[in-house]
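# nightly structure sweep
# worker-07 picked up a monomer target from the shared queue
# config: single-sequence mode, recycle default, output format = structure tokens
# input follows
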Amino acid sequence: MIVHVHINHEELEELCEADRNGYVYCHDYNSDIEIDLEDIEFDFQDLEEIVDEYLDDIIDILAKYYHKDPKTYKN
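# output follows
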């Protein structure tokens, strides 16, 4: 899932620190972020996982909509 999030630079300065080699390490960000559904993008892998997890429910809904026996569609 891809979600574009804006984090204030002051918060990042509090979470992150640089080491002697110039690498930046940040601690976990533990704050709430409000996101609208329109701001979320699903990539192909997310959609595959959703379909895999809810396939039986999807089949039941489609079977009910088309008034057919759900067992016809299951493996």
